[in-house]
Amino acid sequence: MDNLDAARLQMAFTLIFHIVFACIGMVMPFFMVVAHKKWLNTKNPIYLKLTKSWQKGVAIFFVTGAVSGTALSFELGLLWPEFMKHAGPIIGMPFSLEGAAFFVEAIALGFYLYGWNKLPEKFHWFTGVIVGISGVASGILVVSANGWMNSPSGFDYINGEFLNIDPIQALLNDAWFTQALHMTLAAFTATGFAVAGIHAFQIYKNRHPELHKKAFKIAITFGAIAAILQPISGDLSAKDIAIRQPVKLAAMEAHYETKKGAPLYIGGIVDEDNRNVTHKIEIPNALSFLAFGDFNAEVKGLNDFPEDIQPNVPIVHYAFQIMVGLGTLLLFTGVLFFISLKKKSWWDNTKYWLLFTIMAPMGFIALEAGWIVTEVGRQPWIIHNVMKTKDAVTPMPGMIFSFYMYLCLYTILTIAVTWLMIRQIKSLNQSKLV
Questions:
Q1: Where are the chain's structural domains?
Q2: Bridge partner list, 271
Q3: In 43-120, where does DSSP find H-type helix?
Q4: What count of other Cβ atoms lies within 10 Å of the Cβ of residue 204?
Q5: Distance CA 82, CA 189 (A)
Q6: What are 86-115's pLDDT values in tens digits?
Q7: Would you tell me how many other CB atoms lie within 10 Å of the CB of residue 103?
Q8: Of 381, 429, 434, nearest in space to 209 by CA
Q9: I need a surface site. Which of 99, 104, 212, 218 has the fewest CB within 10 A?
Q10: Cβ distance 149 to 185 under 8 Å?
Q11: What would the 3-class secondary structure string for 144-156 be?
């Protein structure tokens, strides 16, 4: 394995792991403060128990997110020094602001964890709100930096030099809003369904159903709302990509021929040798409409782009299909939850809880697939249309050993977090109400 492949594999692997910790760290505080608010309003001990259990989860994922995120930041300089040499001064602002948001989150979490019976109740609750807001802000700022890689701005590129740098323009690049909106909703969807699924499984097993039903309702409400809103942000993202990164759109849909009134493909197997897609379902003119709001608009195919700037079409296409397919499934499941609020008899049916148990990992699978579309779809560029990934990689040999080291680190983190969360669930089921 050469340096480029080893570096790309390491970056992909660590991003896949970190994004789970980061999303849960962003969203879980909101579950915690809702349960806390219900405790303040009702004095129902179940909500206090939930709050204190979820705050431990927030603390666990805050620490693991900090560790995996710090390791990831070192990778930027370790693996991509040529990228950081030029991009650092341009996108340093979102990263520095993300650091500030992280410190605010850490301080607020400290107040929250150790403020019980020491701080005024309303202020104590409000520190939990700050944890959630600063966590979401951190995520948005990091996505802004990633958006810049897809839509570089805030500089002039003249004779290989990055000149006239404007960090504000770089921060507010053309891709930041659609990517941040889509990512934030994805985080709430994935975390909401994952947490709800864990509690649904406990209800399915008839373990403290009264407690877990309250926890389920809080988590799935966030997840279902986000899942229902997600297609709106997905449509905005697709329209944005169609204009800025037409080759990525072509890869997502595996469209090889330029067409007016281009059809939308559902499923399909990519045949790279013959440059077409087989076993697909076609919806006539739908891609043209979704991309440009015009049923007869022209959509450029992959054959109109040089092969050396085309991404890996099968990976991008299959990841896109997984993301959209699971996103649609999550949307309908979210709608089903809101219908069930009117049909309470469903809550006595074990099949209902089994469904949400099965859906628990689907949001994160969709989220991971979405990041694969974003990152692989931009290839071969690390900065779109400016710098190729192969030109940014470190010249130092032996990156495969760095990959093995990070593989061990993240495996240990995953085992530790899994063990801690299983212990938390067992503790929640075994302890008495406070």
A1: 227-387
A2: 276
A3: 45-79, 81-114
A4: 18
A5: 36
A6: 888 888 888 888 888 889 999 999 999 999
A7: 11
A8: 429
A9: 99
A10: no
A11: HHHHHHHCCCCCE
